[in-house]
Amino acid sequence: MTTVSDLPDLDELRREAAGCTRCELYEPATQTVFGEGPPSAWLMMVGEQPGDREDVEGAPFVGPAGRVLDKALERAGIDRSEVYVTNAVKHFRFERQGKRRIHKTPGVTHIRACRHWLDGELAAVRPAALATLGAVAGKALMGSGFAITKERGKVLEWEGHRLVPTVHPSSILRGPPEARDEALDALVADLRVAAGLRP
Ligand code: URA
């Protein structure tokens, strides 16, 4: 039987992850961006990887995509303080263009190397439900056959968890301005499906 003392401690995991060298992404990145939220969270949201702002601040979804996420969560009736927010990959992968650091999609090797930390977070938080944000996070968990357009907003079974995939909040910012309201409404609708899984 698993007792509470056998469960991994999130703070301990965070401390270990701060020194992670499981793949090469740690070298140019500022720091590991571990998940954040209460260990008692009923919902775990998994994004792709920290962005430029997150890399500097050391916290997930605190930049422009995070602001869209916060707005969508509020409209879906989910308080961010009840959610554990993390990423499939915990270092920012980027390319330098002059002074700018341009996001580069993480590869399978980065996702695999980082799975250790996601598994630790799952074991420590034991959320009632999961939500993946974007195609990369969806594929990271459910494999390369995962198709976001087909699966978004559905309740799927994944490794004993109920999981609702949705789009990445930054896709709304990247889309045409005239399509943003509709895209945000669709993200909110998906998050309402996740809200329906609250115990
Ligand atoms: N995009 C992500 O996938 N995660 C973050 O933390 C920020 C932006």
TrEMBL record:
Entry-linked Gene3D superfamilies: Uracil-DNA glycosylase-like domain
Record keyword Hydrolase present: yes
Alphabetized Pfam families for the sequence: UDG
InterPro entries, sorted: UDG_Type-4/5, Ura-DNA_glyco_family4, Uracil-DNA_glycosylase-like, Uracil-DNA_glycosylase-like_sf
Claim: Hydrolase is one of the keywords in the record: yes
Domain Uracil-DNA glycosylase-like, residue spans: 34-192
Domain of life assignment: Bacteria
TM regions (residue ranges): none
SUPFAM superfamilies, alphabetized: Uracil-DNA glycosylase-like
Keywords tagged on the record: 4Fe-4S, DNA damage, DNA repair, Hydrolase, Iron, Iron-sulfur, Metal-binding
PANTHER family, per database record: TYPE-4 URACIL-DNA GLYCOSYLASE, TYPE-5 URACIL-DNA GLYCOSYLASE
NCBIfam families according to UniProt: UDG_fam4, UDG_fam_dom
Family: Belongs to the uracil-DNA glycosylase (UDG) superfamily. Type 4 (UDGa) family.
Name the record gives this protein: Type-4 uracil-DNA glycosylase
